[in-house]
Amino acid sequence: MSYQTETSEASRNEGKYIAMIICWLLGNGSLFAWNSMLTIEDYYIYLFPRYHPTRVLTLVYQPFALGTVAILAYNEAKLNTRKRNLIGYTLFFLSSLLLIVLDVATSGKGGIGVFIGVCSISAAFGVADAHVQGGMVGDLFLMCSEFNQSFLAGLAASGALTSALRLITKAAFENSQDGLRKGAMMFFAISGFFELLSVLLYAFIFPKVPIVKYYRLKAAAEGSMTVSADLAAAGIQKQRHQGAEEDPKLSERLTNKQLLLQNIDYAIDVYLIYVLTLSIFPGFLSEDTGSHSLGSWYALVLIAMYNVWDLIGRYLPLLKWLKLTSRKGLMVAILSRFLFIPAFYFTAKYGDQGWMIMLTSFLGLSNGYLTVCVLTAAPKGYKSTAKWQAFAHKQGSKHGKIPKESRPSQVSCIQHKSKHGKAPRRMEKTWTAKMQ
């Protein structure tokens, strides 16, 4: 099976900027709900002071995200990409609504039952994240690199946006009765809106953009089996075509083992980036940095600084003279980040809040910069290596969230940011993924 590609050359660029904006919004929606849950950590600490919510919620989240993405990565070539992404975004939306329902039903009270409910929603976010981020990155790798860059920038922007909104809601309701809860409820409502917007954009708008149809037709002509539903949603019918069968290069595939072994250093890079980052952010920053003049604002400011500089770091590779592409250079830079561990330890023990804010900013900057450098370097020579990057990221996230009690140092657990995905494994030596 293939598809009749009756698309003019003009379709190749028609609607490009609209598609880039949609990709940015879809990236934002991929992490907005989870970042919202982490950003309102001051509310959950107030509700559940005995249960360490900033640590436990991430520990619950990770096994579900890791297990789901492992299953999806193994079966990636057989999956319906459209259905996978819609399931993820819909689950994000419904889970965001459940947070509001749970809080209203319990009148904003704590307790072990409510905490178990919140943990269940955190697990649902993990399953949704595994569906959406892997599926979207894999889908966009079949298109132009600007789409993927916009999606990855949207992922980081979700953290900066949620931090900004949390600071605004905290300031607006700080002096009112039950202000902490009112701010959190408004935050949950905004999160639900963004997730509903993502569902509608992906379901009804994105498939019909001309440039998106062009690339999906192209992928189908090359033998991709995962874009059928997307083309049907755009009103394109499939026809018999022998091109894929006649050209053996189009059906040449690498096994999972071959694909992983040829890119093992990139997988290790992604794993180490998130082991380090998520060992510090946000659990250590939220609970282990002592008391300072900023008071209850201190943890929120640290999280906001991390998210803003993470976003800036993701745009730095746009300057070609700043982009790191050497495999050895990437590994050296990533290993050098482990110096952050003693730096944060001694700053928390002996430094003031200014030094801690500066270190947190550098942590975010290096995380965003190195993530994009690895993701845009790794797929060269393949349709995608994204599924193994996704799996490596989840492993790094999981091991970065080992409970504090099992470690010799104060550094503990954390948030999640993932930008990796799944796509067909066909070799295509003429195709490279370069971020413009």
Automatic annotation (TrEMBL):
InterPro entries: Eqnu_transpt (IPR002259), MFS_trans_sf (IPR036259). Its main location: membrane. It is found in: Membrane. One of its GO terms (cellular component) is plasma membrane. Residues 395-436 are annotated as: Disordered. It is a multi-pass membrane protein. GO terms for molecular function: nucleoside transmembrane transporter activity. It comes from the Eukaryota. The chain crosses the membrane at residues 17-36, 56-74, 86-105, 111-130, 151-173, 185-206, 266-285, 297-317, 329-348, 354-378. Keywords: Membrane, Transmembrane, Transmembrane helix, Transport. Residues 425-436 have a biased composition (Basic and acidic residues). PANTHER family: EQUILIBRATIVE NUCLEOSIDE TRANSPORTER, EQUILIBRATIVE NUCLEOTIDE TRANSPORTER 2. Belongs to the SLC29A/ENT transporter (TC 2.A.57) family. This is Equilibrative nucleotide transporter 3-like isoform X1. It comes from Phoenix dactylifera (Date palm). The lineage of its organism: Eukaryota, Viridiplantae, Streptophyta, Embryophyta, Tracheophyta.
